[in-house]
Amino acid sequence: MKTIVVAAQKGGAGKTTLARNIAVAASQDGGRVLCLDLDPQGSLRAWWESREADMPAMLERDPAPEALRTTLTAAQAQFDLCVIDTPPAAPEWLAGALAAADLVLIPVRPSPDDLRAVGATIAAVNRARVPFAFALSQTPRAKITDEAARVLAQHGRVAPVNIAQRVSYAETGATGQGVTETSDDRASAEITAVWTYVKGILHG
Q: CobQ/CobB/MinD/ParA nucleotide binding domain location, by residue (predicted)?
């Protein structure tokens, strides 16, 4: 089983949106996917509870951070992929969660504030010594998006497809869907491309 941790030490970066859509895309790709919500806000679980499809799965209760390794070990026989959502703060246990990852996905909005804030996340991931990749999220069609990609590329890999600012990402948060399950072809193409990129890293 591969494990993806979605992390960004800034609120509003789009962690939960990325986590749920990657999980759905991986499920549609034939994977047995488990979602874990380690964010006290519980947004990923709330989304999942409004969902009708069986995959991705969630446990009856999310593990306490100190029990994460045990939970992942127990899940290995049943699942191909685990996607973990994390809080925007940096609690002490986050280092352990990052260290459990095969890949850390870092969503970043193309704004000066977000680019300044991403340094703390990069430092935490580097301390954990795990592979990571950035995904530009909530992107406008503007020069600042290209500039943000260039800045991030100096620090690590950047997903080749941006996740644009689209209404369907917000709407599916309420309906329990992924955008790849809707009629929004552009959003679906974005997430499918990001998942294909991520899968290539995990199995490359």
A: 4-128
Residues whose CB falls within 8 Å of the CB of residue 119, separated by 6 or more in sequence, listed in order: none
SS3 4: strand
Query: What span, in angstroms and rounded, lies between the C-alpha atoms of 123 and 55?
Result: 33
Distance CA 201, CA 137 (A): 19
Beta-carbon count within 10 A of 150 CB: 9
d(CA 37, CA 45): 6
Q: Domain locations in the chain?
A: 2-203
CA–CA dist 158, 44 (Å, integer): 24
CA angle 35, 13, 100 (to 5 degrees): 40
What would the pLDDT profile of 122-160 be if each residue is shown by its tens digit?
A: 999 999 999 999 999 999 888 999 999 999 999 999 999
Question: What CA–CA distance (Å, rounded) separates 115 from 190?
Answer: 22
d(CA 170, CA 173): 5
Q: Which pair of structure tokens corresponds to residue 183? A: 């009629």
- The third-level CATH classification (topology) of the domain covering 2-203 is Rossmann fold (3.40.50)
* Per-residue pLDDT reduced to its tens digit, 20-67: 999 999 999 999 999 999 999 999 999 999 999 999 999 999 999 999
Please tell me the distance from the alpha carbon of residue 25 to that of residue 63, in angstroms, as a whole number. 24
Q: What is the DSSP letter of 66?
A: G
